[in-house]
Amino acid sequence: MNPSPAENIYLPKLAVVDGLNDEIPDVRTIHWHLENPEDQKAFISAIKPGTFCLLSLPGKGEFTLSMPPSPTEGKTFFTMRRCGVCSRAFYDYKPGDKFGVRGPFGNGFPMESYYGKNLVVVAGGIGLIPLRSIVVYALANRDKFKGLQIFYGAKNPETLMYADDLKKWEKGGAEFHLTVDSASPGYTGDIGVVGTLFKKYKPNVENTVAFVCGPPIMFRFVIKDLLEIGFKESAIVSTLERYMKCGVGKCGHCCVGVAYVCADGPVFTYEQLKRLGEVI
Ligand code: FES
Predict the structure, then answer these.
(1) Which of these, 133, 124, 182, lies nearest to 156 by C-alpha position?
(2) Tens of pLDDT along 176-194?
(3) Ligand 1 in contact with 144 (CB < 6 A)?
(4) How far is the CA of 242 from the centre of ligand 1 (A)?
(5) I need a surface site. Which of 7, 103, 169, 174 has the fewest CB within 10 A?
(6) For ligand 1, is residue 242 a contact (CB within 6 Å)?
(7) 251 Cβ closer than 6 Å to some ligand 1 atom
(8) Predicted confidence (pLDDT) at residue 2 exceeds the cutoff of 60
(9) Which ligand 1 atom is nearest residue 243's CA?
């Protein structure tokens, strides 16, 4: 968000929880809105796929969450895993509870520069959270992109993130491939790590951008697989998570090599990550 000169970017805006829905165990989506309708409008128009926010919880602290909604949805929500002091506290928030929001910040995915290309989205587990907005954005602008392929790896068929969205995406024009670590009775789909899907379903490679997000081990193997099938390092894009304080390139807490994840990222190509010496 580009603040107006009078706006204090360090001052959180007051937000109110509207509703909750559980995704998978310990992962919850929290719908909310900014109390001031003008702020809400400005916030929605500033969302870009891949941007993030800093949330402040009174008595707990401030923490970072990526923005899963696409600007095409006109909605504000976060999806988060219960894992630290702040996220545990936020996880238990109920409709009507209030918190502070700063953002959205960060470079985001430059979606317009991908017009005319194939998109390949590769996500493992909750790695789908920051990539969700790309899929929704691409489906809302379907004529601007060529193929849209989603390769998703989950623990088992019961622990799918955004389960309702996944069905809609398939119907809406995305090619969707799922693999799971362990099957349950009745599941007849693919089993194995997400990269094993590439041999069977052949992702587009020419004129294609691949978006990768997931646990570090998955990331390393998927990158290797993508490079092997012909992707250039500059055509593989990911988003970094780092501990952040200011969120706007001032404090240095999120440094990776010579870059600030908050201001220069969080979206980087694999080529950039290598140059920065980032080991994921
Ligand atoms: S969080 Fe302060 S420079 Fe990035």
Answers:
(1) 182
(2) 999 999 998 999 999 999 9
(3) no
(4) 9
(5) 7
(6) no
(7) yes
(8) no
(9) 1
Q: Is the pTM of this model over 0.90?
A: yes
CA–centroid distance, residue 54 to ligand 1 (Å): 11
Q: Residue 66 has which token pair?
A: 């990526």
Mean pLDDT over 212-240 rounds to: 96
C-alpha span between 235 and 230 (Å, rounded): 10
pLDDT over 70 percentage in the chain: 97
Pairing of strands 236-239, 175-180: unpaired
Q: Is 252 in the pocket of ligand 1 (CB under 6 A)?
A: yes
What is the C-alpha to C-alpha distance for residues 67 and 1, in angstroms, rounded to an integer? 13
CA of 209 to the centre of ligand 1 (A): 28
101 ligand 1 Cβ < 6 A: no
CA of 196 to the centre of ligand 1 (A): 37
> Which contacts (CB < 8 Å, 24+ apart) does range 56-59 have?
56/12, 56/99, 56/100, 56/101, 56/102, 57/86, 57/89, 57/90, 57/99, 57/100, 58/99, 58/100
The CA 60 to ligand 1 mean position distance, Å, reads 19
